[in-house]
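Supplementary material to the annual report.
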Amino acid sequence: MKKTISISFGLVLLGLSLSAPATISVVTTTQDLAAITEAVGGDNVTVQSLTRGTRDPHFAAAKPSMIRKVYRADLLLVIGADMEIGWLPPLLQSARNGRVQPGNPGYLDLSSVVPLLGKSSGPVSRAMGDVHAKGNPHYWLDPSNGIRMAKAIATRLSELDPTHKIDYQQRLNTFTEILSNKLSVWQNELTPLKGNKVIAYHKSFIYLADAFGLHIVDEVEPKPGIAPSAASLSALVAQIKRDNISLLILEPYYERRSAQYLNEQTGIRIAVLPQSVGARPDIKNYVALFDAIVAVLNNTKGK
Amino acid sequence: MVKPYCYVMQFVAVFTVLLLNTGTVIASNETDALRKQLTEMKHLQKNYEQQIDAMEKRLVDLESNQNKPEKLAVTPVESSLVTSTGSNNDFQIGLTGLFAAGASSVDNDSLEGLQAGGHDPNKNGFTVQNVELSIGGMVGPYFDAQANLIFLIDAEGETVVELEEAFFTTRSLPHGLQVKGGQYFTEFGRQNNQHPHTWAFVDQPVVLSRFFGGDGLRSQGVRASWLMPTDWYSELYVGVQNPKGETVTSFLNAPGEDIGGYTLIDRDARNFSDMLYTARWLNGFDLSDTVSMNVGVSGLLGPNASGTSTDTTMVGADFYLKWQPDYSQRGYPFVSWHTEILNRRYEAGDPGSPSRETLKDWGMFTQALWGFKPGWVAGLRAEYASADGNTSTDPLRDTRKRLSPNLTWYPSEYSKLRLQYNRDWTEHLPDKTADSIWLQYEFNLGSHAAHVF
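Predicted assembly:
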């Protein structure tokens, strides 16, 4: 009798171990989402990002290999707020994966868990350039939003994989603790820049400015997504001189000639800020992203 | 859920009443007592029933309230993702207008033979190439649908409306399957199912105009595709379409048209063997983080109208390579290279007929694009097409070469200006060469048109 029980118990255990999914397959639209998922998912997940941090996520090159990745995914994480509007809808249609269709548990739009800035209050028209009516989608550049995103990701992972709920919770706690500690360090280091007037190339640093007290007064692009012209640049030269603007920040993928021109005309300092995990080869996780941003800003402020 | 639960409640209530009342039964006047007891019980039962009804009603109310958000949560559709306006549920509408102005060294009659595509600029002066209304969206959790209507102005200045495409596709069939049905562009090669406003050149490749006619290969039918369980992207498309009409010119084209000297008869598809069968196998590879490649082969088999039992077979191979560096702004810079080779075997004339022969045609185009700064693309296309036999007077079968450099500027994502020069070498024109220059302009209103991979 005892033997029978132990054998059947053993068989049940064997069955459980065979049927239990090894890991949750997570596909993200950006490397920032992938980095946060790796931090809270650890060994229980495999993470793939559809785009690389070196590229502008608005304009991802849609590739067939992406169809394959989304088809196999258990969970799809997106930035949302129209960030991926140009390429994700046809990709989701081709991927024929019911689990990760919007509205299902395998689809998580992180813009729904953070307070979005820059929501348009009035009517929006294309004459205004690439305006995101739902709010500015570059929200991962505020570390507090990183914590919010991590929380939402951990919750969703726990729902999909309840057996490892405790693991996700523990890693979330660790991530939150590290990030909270780091946040005060970064804020301290950037105190001298607080309230400084800054020009950004694109409307993509408003969350970063919000988190560290920078004051972005204008953009190099006359309208979002519209390249600067000679006239718009000379207007900027006048503005920089008049308002004593000291710093120009831009992503590594933007053209540098406009920035160099402004530097030559006004002496404004230029900071090329990595905007995403993977934007530089040395930035491999979410904490390293802000370490790198703070380092660049520190280097420029003294010059 | 509600009903069995209530029956249980009712049963429990009656049973409880019976238990409570057994002790109070006195045997002295059994009939009276029983009658009294029965009345009491009926009264109690009525009370309980009323209570149960009230509870049942509350339960139904509660459950219907709970169900509402639950049902919303499982609907696998979210409007915010698919509409750029965010206000209109799952519905996209867009209008593109594509126009050209230009001049050629040859007259308009000769241009019609050179620019054989239905949307090609083919007049000295102005051409309305394509005004297209696209409507599409999610039909429900399981289907997407799209319709493309074309407005054209023909040579007589008449406005023509065409139902270019109207089809559904499934969204989440199991095992990597997808079904598409309706009127649609056949998936053959990379270029055929692209719409004119996404073309990299102002006109369609010569070989496609020859094999698929002015409007590209499209017809009514159904196709299934299977995303194969391979480590790389590999998809197999198999379909069946009606073989008859002006948009399937290598098959049952309109009677009276001719091909290689054979005048087409009025032939209908009579059974399944008379349908147009289509197949495509597409593979995609990421060679590195910056280079990706697509390789496809396609095939077609169907009847043709040169005889009562004649068939056409076509095969094609396509190759697409794209390079985009690590750091790119708005998708620029990039270099892409797209090549297609097509071959057609057209059985002309019925078996036994003395003039029976097989018309063998082939053609290719290869085009490179260089997006050298945001919004600016330079392109170069080289084409060759020829056929077996004495075809030198036939504009659709002579040996033909064309070289087309162009330059495109996108002031924003929704508009473009393109300047293209065409150098043509033909056999059928007296001059043997032609030079043309085209300026193309485009606007896009409304939603993004879906991009092709």
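Chain A has ten helices and eight strands.
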